[in-house]
């Protein structure tokens, strides 16, 4: 697969070839070269938009091709940022639970409910961290590099290796993945044959943790919401009192 430097060098070589000044013939050939260059780009555009084999999908693919290139090349580098965001956000929620939610549980619920909250909350956190670590560090599975004599196995057009059934080429990892589901930027890894169960378990325990935190912090949310309503009501009363005093003074 050729890199972007190769394509850039080809484009620059094309422009230099057309704009090059010929010392033997003088500078009179520049308008003709510009005219030839303009005709060349017209042929390219007409072959794209006025071709009988071209449709709107092909034109849209050509327009969005730079965006696809940016996604394929930048997602690989932003994967570390997304993993750091997951760690920071999850840690912030855990800190808020320890500092704000647990004191309310200790002062409100009986002993058996406190024990249940402690056991379930730490078990859910342990399962969440374990499955996220395994989904991030486990290889999704790569097809064997050796050639096979099985006629039903095809070859990947990009990495030229045997491509078993349900195997897809990841443009971000630049490799074929066994039973590829998708490339997850939050894991900085592909979801494939060997880490699909860890990814599913991570999503399941994350959902359970969100539900648990929402139910546990319901009273805090209602108190904060009522406090906002009370403050808004007091602010409205103060504004009405100020308007009334202005009318009296006037």
Automatic annotation (TrEMBL):
InterPro entries: Palmitoyltrfase_DHHC, PFA4/ZDH16/20/ERF2-like. It is a multi-pass membrane protein. Pfam families: DHHC (PF01529). Keywords: Acyltransferase, Membrane, Transferase, Transmembrane, Transmembrane helix. It is found in: Membrane. GO terms for molecular function: protein-cysteine S-palmitoyltransferase activity. It catalyses: L-cysteinyl-[protein] + hexadecanoyl-CoA = S-hexadecanoyl-L-cysteinyl-[protein] + CoA. Its EC number is 2.3.1.225. The chain crosses the membrane at residues 77-101, 113-133, 198-215. GO terms for cellular component: membrane. Residues 155-227 form the Palmitoyltransferase DHHC domain. Belongs to the DHHC palmitoyltransferase family. The DHHC domain is required for palmitoyltransferase activity. This is Palmitoyltransferase.
């Amino acid at each position: 697969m050729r890199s972007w430097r190769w394509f850039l060098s080809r484009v620059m070589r094309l422009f230099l070839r057309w704009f090059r000044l010929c010392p033997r013939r003088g500078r009179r050939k520049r308008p003709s070269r510009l005219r030839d260059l303009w005709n060349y780009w017209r042929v390219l555009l007409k072959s794209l938009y006025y071709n009988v084999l071209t449709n709107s999908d092909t034109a849209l693919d050509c327009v969005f091709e730079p965006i696809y290139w940016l996604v394929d090349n930048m997602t690989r580098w932003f994967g570390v940022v997304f993993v750091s965001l997951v760690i920071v956000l999850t840690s912030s929620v855990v800190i808020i639970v320890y500092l704000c939610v647990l004191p309310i549980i200790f002062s409100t619920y009986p002993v058996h409910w406190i024990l249940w909250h402690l056991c379930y909350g730490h078990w859910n956190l342990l399962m969440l961290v374990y499955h996220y670590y395994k989904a991030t560090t486990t290889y999704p599975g790569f097809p064997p590099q050796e050639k096979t004599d099985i006629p039903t196995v095809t070859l990947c057009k990009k990495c030229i290796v045997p491509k078993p059934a349900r195997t897809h080429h990841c443009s971000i990892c630049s490799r074929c993945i066994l039973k590829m589901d998708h490339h997850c930027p939050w894991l900085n890894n592909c979801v494939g044959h060997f880490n699909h169960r860890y990814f599913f378990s991570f999503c399941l325990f994350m959902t359970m943790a969100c539900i648990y935190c929402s139910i546990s912090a319901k009273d805090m949310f209602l108190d904060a919401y009522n406090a906002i309503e009370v403050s808004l009501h007091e602010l409205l009363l103060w504004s009405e009192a100020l308007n009334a005093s202005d009318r009296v003074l006037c």
